[in-house]
Design goal:
The chain has 101 residues and is mostly helical. The protein has four helices and no strands. The chain has helices at residues 4-21, 30-51, 55-76, 87-94. Helix 2 runs antiparallel to helix 3. The longest helix has 22 residues, at 30-51.
């Protein structure tokens, strides 16, 4: 198996990440989210060329690092790291405009 294994792991990370943490990126521009994934896939591919399947470690470390940073940042700002509440405060911290329902 070639690079398919890394792509499969990236797909799982993307599906789980958007399902669990998508509420934290509701106002993020589509091009920023796309650019992030192009960079992750590109770096993983370059690493795969040099270290073969150990590139999976890069994916897992980036994912773990992102989750740790997310929890620390949310706790520091008194935001629930799972539900993104209080929503108004979260929007203000991100510089987004909060619209009441």
């Amino acid at each position: 198996m070639g690079f398919e294994l890394e792509l499969f792991i990236l797909l799982i990370a993307h599906i789980l990440g958007t399902s669990i943490f998508g509420k934290f990126e509701t106002e993020t521009a589509w091009w920023r989210l796309s650019l992030k994934w192009f960079i992750v896939i590109g770096l993983t591919y370059v690493l795969y060329q040099f270290i073969d399947h150990l590139a999976i470690i890069f994916v897992l470390l980036c994912t773990l690092g992102g989750i740790i940073f997310h929890f620390i940042w949310c706790r520091k700002h008194n935001i629930d790291p799972v539900s993104a509440t209080p929503r108004k405060k979260y929007y203000e911290l991100r510089g987004w405009t909060y619209k009441e329902d």
